[in-house]
Design a protein that fits this description.
- The complex is a heterodimer of chains A (296) and B (275).
- Chain A has 296 residues and is α/β, with parallel strands linked by helices.
- Chain A is 35% helix and 29% strand.
- Chain A contains ten helices and 14 strands.
- In chain A, β12 and β13 form a beta hairpin.
- The two termini of chain A are 32 Å apart.
- With 275 residues, chain B is mainly alpha-helical.
- Chain B has one domain.
- Chain B contains twelve helices and no strands.
- The radius of gyration of chain B is 21 Å and the shape is elongated.
- The chains are: A alpha/beta (296), B mainly alpha (275).
- At the A-B interface, α2 of A face α1, α7 and α12 of B.
Chain lengths: 296, 275
Amino acid sequence: MLTLQNISKTFGDRLVLSDMSFTIPRGKVVGLIGPNGAGKTTLIRIMNGVISPTHGTVRYDDQPIEALRTKAGIVTESAGLYPDMTALENLTFYASLYGVRNKSHLLELLNQFDLAHVRDAYVHTFSTGMKKRLALAKAMLHDPEILFLDEPTNGLDPDGIRQVLDMIRSVNQTKGTTVIITSHLLYQLESVCDAYIFIEQGRFIDQGTLVDLLNRHQTSIRVRIRTNLPPDSARTMFETAVAPVAPDVIEVSFKDETCISPFLKQIIDQGYAVYECQIIDRDLEGVYFKLRGETK
Amino acid sequence: MNLPLVLAVIKKDSIQLFRKKILLFTLIIIPVLMGLVLPIGFAWFIIELDPSTLTDPEVLDLLNRFLATTASPDVLTLTFNEQLLYLFLNYPLVTLFLLVPVITCSVIAANSFVSEKEQHTLESLLFSPITIRDLFYGKLLISIASSYLISAVCFLINLLVINTLISVNGFSVSFPSTQWWVLLFLLLPILLLTTALINLLISTRVSTYQEAQNLSGIIILPFIGLIIGQISGLFFINTFFLILLSIGLLILNVFLLKLALRFGTRDQLFNSQMS
């Protein structure tokens, strides 16, 4: 368990993080979310012990952060690889820093991340995707208990993104690795994370699973319905707020999920058809914008 | 000191020394020019010099008077060319030769931490279990060992070529003299430690290799002073001077090492490089 208590960080006169406290439970995949400049990277660097907080403490399983050093892996935004060294040389160097002496383990990792065929090629010849995959292999060298991934899918093509997300799910499920991940692409986080931590302008905003966050912050549900019911009729027929979006699409706001079925039944009972019905804004992106709106 | 981690840094940095073309070019061109071409060229020029072309008798007089006070009586019985060669091998060549380890060590050490920043690898290093002290030791040792090796190779080639020239021309000058051994086994390691420490301290405090190079250039200035001092006759390097200089630098190294080891936290190093 990683516990942050009253963390603040200043660089000169600039306050980057202010009085942050939260806990990351063991074995969870946690998304760290916030706009550019919110302090995500600084927070990751404090959590992994690269920089010290100005105030507050970070503890891993009730021990000082130094205890984390041999148990954690990191993928920084820039990958942290030596461009004039080969893939295998990079892994060999980092393996020696972590006391990993089993060379076959390095070759297995290269194989696992589809880099075995370029093991003797210089990293500067690699594509962004290959560098990210090698950075992940580097982070996994010592089977870490906790992984810090700072924008791990930046610059990747769809195949690369899927590979990285699959890897995150796999290590979390097979080895119980705790993963702390930042990304601007919220739909990516939604596919792998168990819980989320929202920060804004260096301040902790909220934390929880998607369901928790939705229950706390989504006071209404918006549903988009494709139907042959004319929008004007819909407005007069129902007390609920109805807004036309397209000639055959209306958007309706409900208090909660239980109101959807009766509404659809009413349309059908009036002799109209319902072709499609989709809840919108009830996802991570919806929570993000809701929270941002609340903090402004 | 965690030796396996220090050795890992040394191995990684030595691989990179051979891969960085600009660095490698400097590490080849400086020793070849200052450690081989100039010393061997000057020695050859002195051996081939026709004394009758020197019309100014004051030059010969000055040479005799200097050797009478600094060299053994045997040297006074040598020919003009032998005396001039003796003078060159024991005084200007010492300073010229010292520039090789100083410049190569400066280049390697100045590049050390800055290159980690420029390659965006510093964060991964600071995140790993290696302590800042072991990282520092690794970078210190690679800077000293590689520049000592380069200097030793230059010296051995000089030894071979100059002694061949001496032997072929039937000269009675012995090279190297005692002060060369003092230089190689006492002054040089101490001087390399001074150079590496100063440059590493610079490298931990600047953000670009260019900045580090500009600042490290200051270290070479005292050696330019030594060369000018010798040419102008202000002072001459002898064994006693080399021992005295070694002791002085050793004391300086103690202070530099204390200063360097005070720079001991990841936070400090990260902030100095990233902010």
